[in-house]
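Please check both lines for our workbook:

___
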Amino acid sequence: MIVWGGIDFPPTVFLSTGGRYDPASNTWSAISDSGAPSARGKHTAVWTGTEMIVWGGWAGGTIVFNTGGRYDPATDNWAATSVSGAPSSRGLHTAVWAGRQMIVWGGADPRLSFFNTGGRYDPTTDTWATTSLSQAPGGRASHTAVWTGTEMIVWGGVIPINTGGRYDPATDTWMATSLSGAPSTRWDHTAVWTGTEMIVWGGSDGPDINTGGRYDPAGDTWAATSLSEAPSARSAHTAVWTGTEMIVWGGIAFPTYLNTGGRYCAQAAPSAGRIGLPKNGRERTIGR
C-alpha cells in the first residue's frame, strides 16, 4: 500500500511525503521526495498496475493545483505529469483508472466554484484529452466515482445532490443515472463497484447518514441497502469491496471520529445455480 500527501493538523501543514506499507512484514518504508509533486491535500491517487498517479489538490488559501506526479515503486522515482491540456486546477475531484488512462472529473477550487469538466490522462504518452461536456452531470465536489470496466459512474456530491452520470471514454459520451429510487442527497459518502452494481453508502446532508443504495447500470435501477444492523451514521469514511462484501470503516459523526465499521453482503444464497441480488442485503457491524 502506498500513501502520499495530505494534511497534518493542528497546525495545518500540507505534506509532500509518503510511505509504502508491506503487509507481509508489517513494515513501512519512506518513498523518495526527489521530484515529488509539491505539498497538497484534497488530491486524488490511482494505481495503474505499475505506478501511482497523484493529481490536483489544494494547499491552503487560494493555492490549487492542476499538476501531478507518477510514482514508480520499483525504482522509487517520480515523474511529473504534463500540464499541457490538463484540466483546470481543483481539489475534491475524483479519479479512476480505466485500464490505460486516468479519468479525472468534477471538483472545486478554494472559492467553491464547482466543476463539471474533466480530463483523460494517458501515462504512456504523457498527454491529456478533455471529457465531453455534452450531457455531463452538473458541477460538484466531494462526490464518488467508480470504474465498471467500460464506464465511469459518478454520483452525489455537494452542493448536496443525488444525481449522477455514466461516462464512456470509448465514445466520449455521458448518460444520466436514474433518479427513481436513488438514495437521498449527500456528499462525503463512499461508493464501491461489485462487478455488477455500484453500492453507495453513508455521507452527509448536513446531518450524517447511514443509508445507501445499489445502482444497477444494466437496468438503470436503484435498490436501497438494508438498515438492519447498519453502522451508525457517518461521513468521510472508507469502503472497499472484497469480492463478496463491502466493508466500511471509520469516518466522522461530527464532532466525533469513529473507529467502528460494518460488512455489507449484497448477495443472496445460490438458487438454481445462480447467485441472486436481493432488494436488501445483510449488514454486519464490526468494532462495537
About this structure: Residues 268-280 have pLDDT under 50 and may be disordered. The chain has two domains: 1-148, 189-288. The longest strand covers residues 13-22.
